[in-house]
Amino acid sequence: MARYVRSEPRTFAISVTGASLYAAATVGATVVLGRVTEQVILPAFDGGVSKSTVIGGAIALFAIGLLKALSIILRRYFAGLTAFRVQAHWRRRISNLYLDVPLDFHRAHPTGELLAHTDSDVLAATEVMSPVPFATGVVALIVFAVISLALIDVWMMLLGLLLFPALAVLNRLYTKRIEKPAEVVQEQVGKVSRIVHESIDGALVVKTLGRSSLEIDRLAEAADDLRITRVKVGRLRGSFEPVLQGMPTIGAILLLALGSWEISVDRITTGQLVQGIALFSVLAFPMQVVGYFLEELPRAVVSSSRLDRVMTAPLAPAPDPAIAQALPEGGLRVDVDDVGFAYETDQPVLTGVSFEIEPGEVVALVGSTGSGKTTLCELLVRLDDPTAGAIRLGGVDLRVAQSDSLHRHAALVFQETFLFADTLWENVVLGLEVSNDDVRQAMAIAQADRFVGNLPMGMATVVGERGVTLSGGQRQRVALARALLRKPSVLILDDATSAVDPVVESEILGGLRRDLATTTLVVAQRVSTIELADRVVFLEGGRVQAQGRHQDLLAELPAYERIVRAYETAGATAEAEA
Amino acid sequence: MSLFRRGADATVDELVSDEQQKAALEAGLAYSRPAMFDDQTELLTEEHETPSVRAMEVLRRGLAVSPELRSGIVFTIGMAVATAVGRLVTPVLIQQILDKGVSGSEGFQPRFVLGASAVALVITFVVMALSRATYIRLVQAAEQMLCNLRVKAFAHIHRLSIADHNESKRGELTARVTSDVETIARFAQWGGVAWIVDTVIILGTLTVMAIYSWQLTIVTVVVMAPLLPLLRMLQRRQLRAYDVVRTRVGQTLSAVSEAVMGAGVIRAYGITGRVRERMHGAIDRQYAAEVRTARYFAFMFPLGDVFGGLALAAVVGIGVWWGPGWGMNAGTLIAFAFLVNLLLVPIAELAEILDQTQTALAGWRKVLDVLDIPLDIIEPDPGVDLPQGSVEVRAEGLDFAYRDGGQVLRDVNVVIPAGASVAVVGQTGSGKTTFAKLLCRLADPTGGRITLDGVDLRDVAPSARFDAVRMVPQDGFLFDTNIRDNVRMGREGATDDEVGAAFVRLGLDWWLARLPDGLDTEVGERGESLSVGERQLVALARAQLANPGLLILDEATSAVDPETERALSDALIRLSRGRTTISVAHRLSTAEAADLVLVFSDGELVEQGSHDELVDAGGRYAALYESWLGNTQRA
User: Fold this and answer.
1) Whole-structure pTM over 0.80, yes or no?
2) Count: domains in chain B
């Protein structure tokens, strides 16, 4: 907590000052009321007072109310400001981290969890902040009030000291008792909502299976559980709230009985009794929140430690600028030299993988699911470093390649196309400074120009989360254009054309070979793609089983033949929307 | 041959793209946003469209649906009175003791003071007991009402025909039973109760004030009057500011989620800086919006203190000057000062719940509206049984139109002999899927009829229909439990052995054996832990277990990996043996292998016959086939 305060000391100090001022003004208001009673009200009904006294009393009452309001504004505004600033600061730090960690980190953590860190966890961790000024005010209020009571009369103070701690204890007990069932209510609301979501999403299945009445029973049960718990919460609330509300009243009644006796023996004045009653009514509320604040503190500590853990994630390695090299211009040769790769402690994904691709050559990577194709593709653009061996582009080890230069020369098109929630133009260009013609040409080679031309907004069409939904094939072609626009010397296609027409695919690959002389590695899931390649690398179980021409492998290698046949049958039963 | 799929797919791509995009644009409003923002946004737009829901009308309709509410209201009023009395005890006792016990003409009256205090104590205890009793009763009534309303709405939704269950409505319907009911629940627990309690407290306080001095009561009302509208205005602005924050939070989250989900692309293309800018921009905009709300948060609350101070100053000033002339006593004026403070909390609360009331009423009305959607499908009771074994299906003059007028099927006539395998083909929107849905009575035809073994589908007993007719939908939706329970839904009460046997019969036991936990494998939400193809395998096993006489298959259009693809087609052949099978076909191979091909176009059945007959006839199907072949040959 201390470090939050340290990061925004000024606003925090103002809000705490406001809170203390609030305590002083609140107690001050009771003092003013007592004084006005004594010096204005009682004399007025006992023979009259001067006009100026009346006006003075009225102004004092209003002024102290105004001071109180002002102090609340100071505390609330600056406490909010402190919290929001700290939150924004954390969000920046965490989101920076997400960009700077290796890709592996993202594989290890579900999206939902990472989003929760920037949203609910940041809120929870900083939530403890906002009540700090308020709690300061509350504590100050209690201290001032007790002093003020003691100054009036020791018996009154004793009554207060008896009543208010009891109120605080009772309130704590209440929050403790209600916490569990309140949590259960949250869970049950979640359960009800899950059942409804699932049931209505699957309405078609529910209907065809004739399960409607079973589903209704399922919901009725969950809804009834929720009802029972909520009634339980209501019962607790019904038992505690009236007592919490009644106790200050009981205190005031006892105070009145005590006070009127003390007035009769001249120990106190009527004005002081009025002040005492006012103090009692002012104190009731803070007693209820002190407990709440104490309950919240540990929870916030938990979520802030969760954030701390995230922040310790190691960052992606960057090449030492002193030895970093740029990749040579022109066609690049790819060397995969005895490469091994394993995720922490797991089975190795790749073992002793070696092959090379000559400048301008098109090589197909073939292998069954889980053979390590995707991992290999990612290593080729250094989304990870091999755990053994080395990968070299144009003779430069990727570990010492300048990252700018690497990004300019090598492009990977992923299996899963990711589009940003932005225009098609932005999605293709991604901040690159390029001419209209370049983009048009890339779109044409990727065969994406036709469908984009048919969109009413063309390249300005917003896609992604909030925009137009593109089909799988369209998305792949956009992703392809994104890569082609960069005129990469090395292009890696990780099954990136699976939803694209084979005819179109062959045109794309042909275009690459002709116009750009790009060194290409293509993960192939169909025979037509394999046939387009100069050579095949056959990967199985993380090892290169064979490499050579398609026809040779087909004739020599039964395992290779099996997998290629599987592609063929899949193709034969393949869908064709009529 | 191997190039079929891609060729045809790409053609369709271009054909469908416009239509898809239009649909996406329409559905987009509800589906493109992350789910968590849906409800709020929906509420908002609703609120803006209907600034004031007719409260009395909703209340009347609501009471008709939920009679439990009446007793709830009675208990709430009881509690309100108790609460009001509890609050008024202190000021009244102050007045009594100051005026009669201490400073009266006879000086200190110990017996009066003790007596009055004792009475006040007793009243306080009675009020506590009464509050407890009435509050618990009112919670019981409210919760019972909410539970019943929720189940009622949910049951009604499930009885609606599939015509009311289309993609875009699904989210709305879900919201009715979840967020809308929760809005009402929040209101029932707090807002609704506060309405009554605060009103009674204000009225009670004003009454006691008026008894003490009607003049000062008028002063108080005049001074306090602007507080309520002022608070309301600020409240509205605050709500709007919070809406902006919610939108901004959503934008921050999508910016961050791009950085997370697009992590690969971002690294591979070296665009970290660009993404960082976008994220920080969103974070800063969120911060700015939050600071705006801090302003309202800070300024609204202290208004009560300002007005309280003003009222107190006015009451004391005027009371001191003219009070003695009006026959007031010092104690009465002091009690007045405490009474003025009693008004502040209920006024602030009322200002807060006024808008909440609008939202709650709008939510309530929406739930009630769902209950008013007429049910299309009335199940016969008891209905006609169907014989076991494969079923003969006839459609006679079949028409179907949506309630809003879109004609989907027009005069479809066809006889499907028992045991035949039929492929239904046609473009998206040709009515082929609707035809399949009508066959399992997901909706009733608007004209003509469907018979199964000569019995009108509308007369078939529901249990017999569920046993005889099974549809395997395209998306392969599974429930969030294990594979065993999902398959068992095919026939409640089936043993574990029977579930296993269903996989064996479809030749899928090897697939099952490969799963880490076999039949106990959890499939996740909507079955999403499994691939699309695997979900379909489970759906097929489910159908196998039911052993229906009529099987309706909606083939998946999405790509499936080669291995699963083979398993699927193999299992399908086994599953369809000995049954009438109607496939909404997306694959050429399905059409080629079928006994009968039905070609739909624009809601009409334009051609029927075997694959060879139709190709020879040279009509629409032949043209379609040509284009398939053409695609293959080009490659």
Assistant:
1) no
2) 3
- The partner residue sitting opposite B8, judged by closest CB among A42, A257, A577, is A577
Same domain, B67 and B115: yes
Distance from CA of B535 to the nearest CA of A (A): 13
- Whether the CA torsion B412, B417, B419, B423 is positive or negative: it is negative
In total, the C-beta contacts within 8 angstroms joining chain A to chain B are 522
pLDDT at A465 over 70: no
Question: CA–CA distance from A339 to each of A367, A543, B174, B424 (Å)?
Answer: 17, 9, 51, 51
Pick the residue from chain B with its C-alpha nearest to A271. B334
The tokens for B534 are 């695997």
Shared-domain flag, residues B407 and B266: no
Rounded to a whole number of angstroms, the distance from the CA of B396 to the nearest CA of chain A is 22
**Angle of CA points B148, B149, B155, to nearest 5°:** 85
CB A490 within 8 Å of CB A467: no
Out of A205, A239, A263, the one facing B102 most closely (by C-beta) is A263
A161 and A122 both lie in a single domain: no
Rounded distance, CA B326 to CA B212, Å?
A: 10
Å between B14 CA and nearest CA of chain A: 7
Do A84 and A33 reside in the same domain of the chain?
yes
Nearest CA in chain B to A260: B102
B296 and B352 share one domain? no
Position B411 in a domain: yes
Order of strands, sheet of B455-456, starting from the edge strand that comes earlier in the sequence: B407-416, B393-401, B447-452, B455-456
CB B199 within 8 A of CB B479: no
Q: Is the pLDDT of residue B118 over 50?
A: yes
Tell me the per-residue pLDDT of A130-151, one tens digit each, with 9 for 90 and over: 667 777 888 888 888 888 888 8
Tell me the residue type at B77: I
- Domain hosting B602: range is 393-634
Nearest CB to A76: which of B144, B165, B297? B297
ipTM of this model?
Answer: 0.79
State the CATH number of the domain containing residue A124. Answer: 1.20.1560.10
Q: Give the residue numbers spanning the domain of A383.
A: 334-413+488-572
Q: Measure the CA–CA gap between B517 and A432, rounded to whole angstroms.
A: 49
Residue B225 lies in a domain: no
CA distance B630 to B635: 9
Nearest to B4 among A42, A96, A571 (CB): A571
Q: How far is CA A277 from the centre of its chain?
A: 49
Confirm if B260 and A114 have CB atoms less than 8 A apart. Answer: yes
Interface contact B13-A451, CB threshold 8 A: yes
Q: Are residues B459 and B338 in the same domain?
A: no
The 3-state secondary structure of B250-283 reads HHHHHHHHHHHHCHHHHHHCCCHHHHHHHHHHHH
Query: Which residue in the block uniquely carries the two structure tokens 């989250």?
Result: B253
